[in-house]
Amino acid sequence: MSILIFIIILLVLVLVHEFGHFFTAKRFGIRVDEFGFGFPPKLFGFKKGETEYSLNLLPLGGFVKIFGENFNEADFVEVGFLEKDSTSKGEYSRSFASKAKWKQALVLFAGVFANFLLAWLLFSFGFMSGLPTSVGNEVAGYKLQDVNLVVISVVPQSPAENAGLQVGDKIVFLTGNDNSVTDINPSTLKSFILSHGNKEINIGYARGKNKEVDIVKITPVASATDGKPEIGISMDQIGTAKLPFFTALWEGMKLNWSITKGTAVGFYTLIADNISGKGSFTSVSGPVGIVSIVGDAYEFGFVYLLSFTALISINLAIINLLPFPALDGGRLFFLLIEKIKGSRINPKVANTANMVGFGLLIFLMLVITYHDVIKLL
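-> structure tokens emitted (377 positions)
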């Protein structure tokens, strides 16, 4: 089920991204030869109008084949266009290369914009349906519903992990030494653990969409920093924020912008650390790692899955903006160079750079996938 959901999410994200390119190119009168999901070899396709729609074997992305994207004027003359007859001139006028630089830039940026737009709509729909929100971050004037104390991280090899507690578990009650606590919040949980020292306590919790309460027995251990008893979790009070339509749209936009800024900073830090030799793949996930996260999000509920899809959409947009060959950002960078130098980059140089860049991206994806598999094993 997780793999199927991941494929559906990937299909939606790719279709939205490529539709941004497709729609903008069509609006500017540029001919689009193919709209493809996945990368070749081609499995099957059909043609509607002048555009072929194809499904390809490698479901790692997609593409829109825009007429004349990699041609310059000399290439058009060589293949028979730009002759004196009006038909050939008409074909050239419908090419990507014949358009003004600002139009080319908008076509390239449109895919990224579509992913940001999708994330905004998903967050907004989440707020309308009821989006999980931390206590203290609620929208002014709107009270959170169904507030629970939720485990947000579990320390490896801690008593909590050994007992089976997981991220996302809702702590419902505490018992031990003939006393119990049902008014659960971070303060009462900490006080309860401190008052019991290294004696065994019982924690009642609910997981995912399951309403049944399970109980685990945990014996706290002394902290390595201050010697106080702890079980090895971080927690937060999380409720559901349900907002009316226009408020949800505004808050969705604000959340989208906030997460976009945070993600961009995270990418910058990751790249800087790798350049300085401090980076690692522990915090990076590829398709295999994302599948497991999709499964967790699905278990928590549909709104969690929507939020996670929005996060992937933002990540996809920012990655595509990187000035790296074969990505939209790389093509935009080439356009900037052409604008500054006042002439086109040799198409052979640009095409070679894009091919090398694409090969490096595939290699990086394979390396990340390998590390995902290792982490699972």
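The CA atoms of residues 108 and 247 lie 31 Å apart.
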